[in-house]
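Lecture 7 notes: from sequence to structure.
We start with the chain below.
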Amino acid sequence: MTTLIINVDRDNDFGDKAGVKGPVVGYTECYNAAVRLISVDPEDSDSNALFGALKVYEDLRKKGEDVEIALLTGDNDVGEKSDEILSRQIADVVGSGQYTDAILVSDGAEDDYIVPVILSYIKIRYVKHIIVRHNENIESLYYYIVRALKDKKILSKILIPLGLVFLTYGLVSLIFILYSAYVTGVRVIDPTVGAITFVTLVLGAYLLERGFDLFNLMARVIREVHEYAQDTRILFFTYVIAALLVMVGIASSYTIAVRTSRNGLDAFLIFLSLFTWWVYGSIFTTEVGRVAELAVGRKAGILKIWYGLIFSLSIAFVVYGMFNYIRYILGFISLKSGLISIFFLILGLIIAIVSSMVHRYFNENPEILREGT
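Predicted structure tokens for the same chain:
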């Protein structure tokens, strides 16, 4: 019987960077895959981990053991989606029943999340981590900053919150500048204040673009809309309805804002607060269409969409509460209305925290999530 050496690329760097589709079985095929990735990105640790698995293969062959090696690739959406792909691949590889046990070789603790999945198909003899040693001169602050800006996981955890902080500060600062100019009649802006506001707005927008990868997201949305239009799928019609909701929301929010307040700045804040719910309505419509599509196709992932909707709702509460709290600070609304805006802010934060905790729980227990879908 044969021992299977498994290398796991949970976030699918092999597929995204080198075009290698898993599972890859065999020494020569895995060696070629490692060479392709390290040629594209010499700094990627996944190629080093696969070379480490190849070294384990060679060492065991020298000892006379019967071994085989396989590379499993997941998805850049690390979590439920990537682990489901890895589960299917390990089932395909070990389905023949010729392997008695396995050795897992990975580049870090994150890949250990797949251990329970592998254990459901085959016994694991041991796990080996391949840790890449760096030259002391390379381990500089600049090196880590550059690496961080290329790492999607770090981008989502660090750059997005920073971007929101800078953008919020810049927007609030801009609103106060416009309000001060309106009240005092001064048309000249303090260069220092103006420069800080401009820099924070640009920096916030840049960090959010890098964190959300907005250009690629917009290109993907346009491509999906084109595909859905050709296939006349449900989601295409929900996109059309969502776009109509946005246009109706602009008109409705503007009308209400103009009728509610004669102050230009107050009317603008009212417009933004009301338009927030129209934007959420368009998002809700789109995601409901996606749920309907998954349900018709009997596909998994419906619960994940509901988590996204709940988290989006929390953002809507926070944004709505923030704009109305600014109205209270500027004296446009009463203390009672200001307290209500604070309530919306707190409610949004509570919903965001709870939904994140629930989502993380199901990510760490994918078997429960699969049963629910």
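Points to note: Residues 152-184 form the longest helix (33 residues). The CA atoms of residues 57 and 303 lie 40 Å apart.
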